[in-house]
Specification:
By secondary structure, this protein is of the alpha+beta class. It has two domains: 2-211, 3-Layer(aba) Sandwich (L-fuculose-1-phosphate Aldolase); 222-373, 3-Layer(aba) Sandwich (L-fuculose-1-phosphate Aldolase). The protein has helices spanning 2-21, 64-69, 79-92, 106-111, 123-129, 134-142, 156-173, 194-211, 243-248, 252-255, 264-270, 284-301, 322-342, 353-360, 363-373, and strands spanning 33-37, 41-45, 59-63, 116-120, 147-149, 179-182, 186-191, 222-226, 236-241, 275-277, 307-310, 314-319. The strands form two sheets. A seven-stranded mixed beta sheet has the order 3-2-1-4-7-6-5, sandwiched between helices. A five-stranded mixed beta sheet has the order 8-9-12-11-10, sandwiched between helices. Helix 5 packs across helix 13 (322-342) and helix 11 packs antiparallel against helix 13 (322-342). The two termini are 35 Å apart. It binds zinc ion. Zinc ion binds at residues 32, 105, 119, 121, 185-186.
Length: 375
């Protein structure tokens, strides 16, 4: 009996994951994760597996009783040590196949007392969650039915903040929250059926679409590979243009509105600083100058630039592979969309220096970055 319930649930969450994962309105560059649970076990999307193509085998099964114990564990006050301890404890909760790593957001999924959770980073929702007036507007649109969590460093600290808020909510409402908005991050939606989750997403997206007036539509950008004649070594260069990108690369002032990351995912894929220059890619001289700028950037920052905004031209991605360059462009173009949508809600609210530094140092995210390239 239980076995059947498990395999049906897993099949359902795999199907829903593919559906949300292949919809660019919900999932950009594979960001987000999903889960299914019974009383005893939770199956969470494995780190580095894409929602778009996930099957039942792309989930990691964890023992919920062991998982719950992490909440009360005595952990280091040093962030790096603490996250390493949590990672090790998470691995001890895995049932069966230990080759996959559970998402770092596993404990958040486990908190919500519903069978299914679909966590995504939709452009429209992040356009609000990365805006100055996000908290006020969410209160106006959704009242006290939803949870709103001000930005908190991801990992164990975020889990503890959400846990407290969920417990408060449960004592007032006598049920778990179905919707959690995470500032400058994304949304958790929970339900006992996939149909309930779909209905909640419809409501949230509908309300946000109504709140953005006049409605915004984004034209698809066009992308081409740039032949760089070895100026950038073995790297792949791809240039994307679109009317929206043109708006934000017009001058240094317009670029300011996308010059700092909005979400941890932005940093995971595009890093936390970007080049803006008037040097193009049309001639060998320009390419040589651009490569020089990129080398100086790398010397200063300690990492290679992933994104160059070329004034009046478009967005240039520098990556190890064609696929990697496409992902970087998708994520940065999403940042530009978020910036544009945020103007309807009081203007952009970027991550702070301290929030950025936390992600930059986070080993877990480095792991995800490495895995994303292999997708
Ligand atoms: Zn997330």
């Amino acid at each position: 009996m239980i076995k059947t319930e498990q395999s049906i649930g897993l099949k359902q969450i795999a199907n829903a994951s593919q559906r949300y994962g292949s919809d660019q309105n919900f999932v950009i560059a594979g960001g987000g994760n999903t889960s299914f649970k019974t009383d005893e076990y939770i199956w969470v999307k494995a780190s580095g597996v894409a929602l778009e193509t996930i099957t039942e085998t792309g989930f990691v099964c964890l023992n919920r009783q062991k998982l719950a114990a992490i909440s009360h564990a005595e952990l280091s006050t040093n962030a790096t040590e603490r996250e390493a301890q949590v990672k090790a404890m998470l691995e001890l909760c895995i049932e069966g196949d230990k080759t996959k790593r559970p998402s770092v957001e596993t404990s958040l999924h486990d908190l919500l007392k519903y069978n299914f959770v679909v966590h995504t980073h939709p452009t429209l929702i992040n356009g609000l969650l990365c805006a100055q007036n996000s908290q006020t507007i969410i209160k106006q649109l959704f009242g006290n039915e939803v949870l709103y969590i001000p930005y908190t460093d991801p990992g164990f600290v975020l889990f503890k903040v959400v846990e407290t808020e969920v417990l408060n909510y449960e004592s007032v409402h006598k049920k778990s929250p179905e919707v959690i908005f995470l500032e400058n991050h994304g949304i958790f939606v929970a339900g006992d059926t996939i149909a309930q989750i779909d209905a909640i997403y419809d409501t949230v997206m509908g309300k946000l679409n109504d709140a953005v007036k006049p409605p915004i539509t984004f034209e698809h950008g066009s992308t081409k590979t740039i032949e760089h004649q070895g100026y950038f070594g073995n790297k792949v260069l791809k240039l994307r243009t679109s009317p929206l990108i043109t708006d934000y690369t017009t001058n240094a002032e317009s670029w300011q509105n996308v010059s700092i990351p909005f979400t941890p995912d932005n940093i995971v894929y595009c890093k936390s600083a970007y080049i803006f220059t008037s040097k193009g890619t049309d001639t060998p001289e320009q390419l040589a100058q651009l490569a020089e700028i990129a080398r100086n950037f790398e010397k200063e920052k300690g990492y290679a630039a992933k994104i160059i905004g070329i004034q009046g031209v478009g967005l240039l991605a520098i990556e190890e592979s064609e696929k990697g360059a496409d992902i970087v462009l998708d994520v940065f173009e999403d940042m530009i969309k978020i910036s544009r949508i945020s103007t309807h809600f009081g203007g952009p609210r970027f991550m702070t220096k301290a929030q950025i530094a936390f992600i930059d140092n986070w080993e877990v995210e480095n792991y995800r970055r490495k895995m994303a390239k292999n997708l």
